[in-house]
Amino acid sequence: MLTLVSVIFVFCLDMWLFDIPAPCQFFVACGKFFYGVGLSFIAAYIFYLITVHYPEVKKARTVYKVSDFPVMAIVTNIERIFIDMAKKQGVDIKRENLNEELIKNILSSTRCYDDSTLNDIDSQGKTKAKNWLGYIVSVEKTYLSFINGVKPLYSQLDSEYVAAISEIEQCDFSQPIIAMLPFLILRQKAQQESQQNIESITFEFGLEDFFLDLYNKSQVLRKIIEERRLRYKY
Fold it and tell me: What angle do CA 183, 189, 195 make, to 5 degrees?
């Protein structure tokens, strides 16, 4: 702001005020003094831009560009949980269409012990589909590995960016879900003795909050990533 005032003041002096006769030498001296001060502020600001601001912006652009892929991979891996669940049910959902209500519907129709879209190799070397419990454990390990990959850059990233990543890292997800299943199964068993119903238990029985919490935190991070892309133009 001060620099802008200096520019306006110097401009006015050059264009008009120097051509107006001064009533006394005091006004001439004051004009020259403030003219010199204004030029000093302008020169200092230009010096700051060249030696500090532009190098820092260039450095930040490089750091955020390097971190962009692993950090966005954290977000996309979390979003992929719900997209893959819907895909297994024959529904093609775009990332942009995900919301809490839709996620709840997907979870309510996804059975924990059904085959997921992710395969595994058993002890005999045969390919076998993981169930959805194994799937979420695998996805969690994947996005945590991306978090570990970006940690060396934390000191060069801003606090909001790092905090959003840390929120996801600290979010207990797969283990609490797996830990709650025996209690849910016992509750289901008390209500209905059918083994088929026990095996058909879905993720809607008190487990939605874990998924929604993780999803909402991923969307906070996505928004921050997109803001940094606009800010640093990479």
Answer: 120
Orientation of helix 208-232 relative to helix 100-108, angle to 10°? 140
| Type and span of the H or E element at 116 | strand 115-121
- Contact between 51 and 184 under an 8 Å Cβ cutoff? The reply is no
Between the two ends of the chain, the Cα-to-Cα distance in Å is 28
Amino acid identity, residue 148? N
Amino acid in position 97 = N
Rounded to an integer, what distance in angstroms lies between the CA atom of residue 176 and that of residue 220? 22
182 within 8 A of 140, measured Cβ to Cβ: no
- pLDDT 10s digits, 194-230: 455 666 788 887 789 999 999 999 999 999 999 999 9
For the stretch 99-116, pLDDT in tens is 999 999 999 999 998 999
